[in-house]
Fold:
Amino acid sequence: MRFAVVRSSAPGCEPNCPEWISAEGTIEAGTPALFKRLLKTLGSRQLPIVVNSPGGNVDAALQLGRAIRKAKLDIGVGTTEFSGCSPQMKNCRDDDGKAAPYLGIAPYLGIAHDSGAMCNSACPLMFAGGVRRVVGEWAYLGVHQITTTYRREKLLYRTTYKIVNGKKKVLSTKIVSRKNAGSYKTYEMSKAVEKRLAGYLKEMGIEQGVLDVMKATPASDIRQIEPNDMLEMKLVTSLDSLDLLTEKTICRRNPVPANCREIPTNGKPLAVASVEIKPAGPQPTEAASSSRPEQDMRFVLVRGSNPLCNPDCPEWISAEGVIAAGTPDRLRELLDTVGGRRLPLVVNSPGGDVQGAFAAGRLIRERGLDVAVARTDFLDCDPGAVGCGAKDLHTGLTVDAGAECDAACAVMIAGGKRRFVGADVHFLVHSMGMEDKVRAYLEEMAIGSGLFVAMQSAQYAKHRELSQDELAEFGLTTGRQSVDALTGATICKSSPKPDNCRVLPAANAAAEASAKL
Structure:
């Protein structure tokens, strides 16, 4: 597990933004020491923790929980999407190429979201230490039986003694060698461990029902605890989401939460996330231009990586990048490789070529595909990263927060049979020229005239962001659900089962499925 202090990069947040501690990864024996070192650098500041962890070392999780309670910190299950610098980068710099000391101890900016985040196995023990504890609707908290590993050692002693009055008197005993004699595991909780965990949960004010669920769930499985059950067990303090701790508007409350910090406008400017695309010169009538060095839209087949879905998991097509003239052809090529399967498109795009968007939208409608605006976080490797080899099927999760659909992207989205845009998505429009063609296309797709009027109301450099209410009113969205309606971990358990669900053959199951927690 690594820790990072993060400041919200949500648009419109500055100058007074929430900050939090991002805690992601496996809990290991040395994790508590890292956490205490971070707390020391924060001094008296009380920042909530946003945790995303598959679990790990039980003793370390108990130490973390007690340290969190001692520091009187809140905690929520979620993950942080970093803007620019991220903890994995070496020599992390901000957009100006300089360090960002104005943040105090870390140059990290980002947005916290709970979609697809998890706190499993030993992680709920750490989570129990929070003063306020929240698990959003789209996050997962799961428990199972504890696995105890016993390691054997073969010791060789040297004993020095003397004979006194005919009796042996030991003078000293020293270990002269140690050899590994193997190890074995037990998958049932011992009485000693059960007593220790019961005492810890009582100390944290958590009901013993959590321990009962742990004992009843095999170590090879994970039992997700439902929100109402977590509330009844007092594992969560409310049914709020992560927004309670990290949403940009919390700093407008009175009193202001402890994790808000105002940075004067004459200080170091913040690298906030931007969705505006400014033209460099006169606009062409055939395409919307972008000042960002985005890559052309790529299409990737993805299978859901949430452990709750195995062995029957949803699959989708990730569509990310700028819409270009060749985008429809690339989409057609990929659709031909999947045969007659109707996989939904998960789109994240700043816009691009309008004619390409027309063709892509018509192809989507022709094939009867559903669409949603969201990002895909890849579990194995990002297809665009150096060193990520070609794969027929990647694994990942879909996330609303930080996703965008700008300009010509709206044209492409209009082709979907079902169309979803979550509450955390940025959906922006502006005039793209070719008014007659755009109006005719939207009528063809049975989209209300209000969308065209909204587009025309913002000229090129002035983007207009549309709300969920407006998108529903214009008929661009067919429901208020988010991308989880198409890619959520539990959709394959519904009846009838969606077309994009598939049980992998046994030969592939071990390779593609996430490791058991």
Observations:
- The radius of gyration is 27 Å.
